[in-house]
């Protein structure tokens, strides 16, 4: 079981992700915007962070960069989960420190498989 933080401003999407990952035995928490996501990351110290790109207060890219700037998050795995699907977006996210990139709409089963792959 891993500790997973979902940072997603769409409550329906966040709920779907939370339900699927929790049903697989993970300890899942949700933050509804980028600022809350950074705060939650410092409190929860998650193994995996799933980030939406386009959020209020701080984008997923900014959250990713902020976490990667702190060496205590060096081993934390980050998955960008976003509607942005251009090659330049993927490059930007990976350059910011994301470990994986998945576009919306997405399969909850595929997201779980990617989380499990990053944890192993």
TrEMBL record:
Transcription regulation in keyword set: yes
Biological classification of the source: Bacteria, Bacillati, Actinomycetota, Actinomycetes, Micrococcales
Keyword Transcription tagged: yes
Any one GO MF annotation of this record: transcription cis-regulatory region binding
GO biological process: regulation of DNA-templated transcription
Keywords: DNA-binding, Phosphoprotein, Transcription, Transcription regulation, Two-component regulatory system
Annotated SMART domains: REC
InterPro entries xref list: CheY-like_superfamily, Sig_transdc_resp-reg_receiver, WalR-like
Origin species: Microbacterium caowuchunii
Protein name: Response regulator transcription factor
